[in-house]
Amino acid sequence: xxxxxxxxxxxxxxxxxxxxxxxxxxxxxxxxxxxxxxxxxxxxxxxxxxxxxxxxxxxxxxxxxxxxxxxxxxxxxxxxxxxxxxxxxxxxxxxxxxxxxxxxxxxxxxxxxxxxxxxxxxxxxxxxxxxxxxxxxxxxxxxxxxxxxxxxxxxxxxxxxxxxxxxxxxxxxxxxxxxxxxxxxxxxxxxxxxxxxxxxxxxxxxxxxxxxxxxxxxxxxxxxxxxxxxxxxxxxxxxxxxxxxxxxxxxxxxxxxxxxxxxxxxxxxxxxxxxxxxxxxxxxxxxxxxxxxxxxxxxxxxxxxxxxxxxxxxxxxxxxxxxxxxxxxxxxxxxxxxxxxxxxxxxxxxxxxxxxxxxxxxxxxxxxxxxxxxxxxxxxxxxxxxxxxxxxxxxxxxxxxxxxxxxxxxxxxxxxxxxxxxxxxxxxx
Length: 429
Hints:
The chain is built from 18 helices and no strands. By secondary structure, the chain is mainly alpha-helical.
């Protein structure tokens, strides 16, 4: 942790504020969201279909609006969109505290997602531009604060939810309200933004979107990276299902998130520094993707040996059955630590400095579409593997996705598509 704190302190004030900003955003969000489904199905006694609809609206409104949020940030400024997004999430969480009708719950859920679509591209674009040549280091620190919020948010929410879910919503809403006010006062507007906005205002939005969508290096890189998001999402889908299959319990699910979070917090800065000394960004991404694919090897090897448990397993047997799952979680976390900072920097390299937030928004939208499709396919593979007696099938398929993505990024790198072109390189001072 000392290395991470030293890295964070080495940046100027705006970057430090953005790191604390993301820690607070994730703490407030993950304080509430893990317990929302239980509130909807338990306290409000809604059927599962309606619970799925309400949660799906949040995801759709966020993933579907990332491009809009990024475009607004490029045109109106990063700080205004960060402030607006946090303010809107304040309203959404406070509304969740009092909503008891379907329309109100749907509106609150949609506002929660749209708020994320406003501030997420803006935060990343602000961080990328403010960090300058230190983008990789900045995003390494960003990922630590991001994961720290994911780790502590649910713990705070667990305590507050023991009192009442309304208290969780009010606390999270007040956190976002305080964050909104703090950013209005403390987060500086970038001097660079005015020139960028004036240039943007002379063009139509559709022309900007067309430029981004037809940016072949960016589009190919985005498509090559989609598989990494599918693999990463297995922490929420495949790994918990495997834990329940082999142990018939939930302890291993909690351990997955604790291990992943602690690894990132303790090791991200060191892993990034180590990778930066050895590889160029595309090479680091390639090796990280290869490791991400190979991380499913422990499960592929162990799945045929572990039968489905009908009653909860305890003791040494429980620990042994969890080892392959935790091994996969550890390797996935390490691979993500290698990839993420270089991935975020590469988006700016292939997209350029003029529409940074737009490119981050479009990238997130494409990743969201990939996750949705990947969830369907990986869920189908998990079912198929169990039905035909080949429990290793889904893990082998996921391993091949990672290796395929690594090969795709390597091919893009060898073709020179991931190098900054004259159009995307920063202008000389």
